[in-house]
Amino acid sequence: MTVPPITIEPMHSMYNQQIGQLLVHGFRGKFQTLTKLNDGELVLFFEKLFDHVPAEPTSQRMVALQEGVVIGTISIKWKTESDRMQIFPAWENLHGFGKWNLLKMFIGLSLLVHKPQAGECYITDVVVHPDHQGKGIGNLLLQWAQDFAQAQPSLDKLSLYVAGKNPRAEQLYQRLAFHTQQRVSSFLSHLLFKEKKWSYMVKRLK
Questions:
Q1: What is the DSSP track for 88-125?
Q2: Higher model confidence: residue 35 or residue 90?
Q3: CA quadruple 149, 51, 46, 184: dihedral positive or negative?
Q4: How far is CA 101 from CA 40, 96, 97, 111, 178, in A?
Q5: What is the pTM assigned to this prediction?
Q6: C-alpha distances in Å from residue 58, one per residue of 78, 79, 92
Q7: How far is residue 130's CA from residue 67's CA, in Å, rounded to a whole number?
Q8: Residue 180 in 3-state DSSP?
């Protein structure tokens, strides 16, 4: 039996809903701890966020496609010249979620923002659909990120954060030559996401 090929392609607006679904699959625990939004509402929130927030010039989201269906996604960013703040859409573009839920989502998302340093290619998120986990999709996405960073003269390392409650993920990245450079604790992260401890992991490329 022939397995349909998997391609890694840049994000397109036609995939916004599917990417929103993937992010909910991967991070629903955090955002449902933060708000009272259900899965469908969270998907719609992320879809509208992609619709109304322009992509930064020093960031890139890719999707893993199989027969036109998004089965995985990865987002990276690197140091900006201006280090400008992330822009969130106007309230009217996100009506229907409740202002208190939106405020908590914006605070939570801001807390998760990491500002890369010079030479750093930061992996903001990488998610594989539950039906396709264990098939090497995550490795394909991470290899894309590594190939991208190695092709940029100014970038010499990949980095990411792993939640302390997910030691299996940390072990997985260690097998891929990531090293835990720092362990941090955040009271605010604990308050919002019930995630106090995080591991900052780095893979040197050059």
A1: PPPGGGGTTS-HHHHHHHHHHHHHT-----TTEEEEEE
A2: 35
A3: positive
A4: 14, 10, 6, 15, 35
A5: 0.91
A6: 6, 7, 27
A7: 17
A8: strand
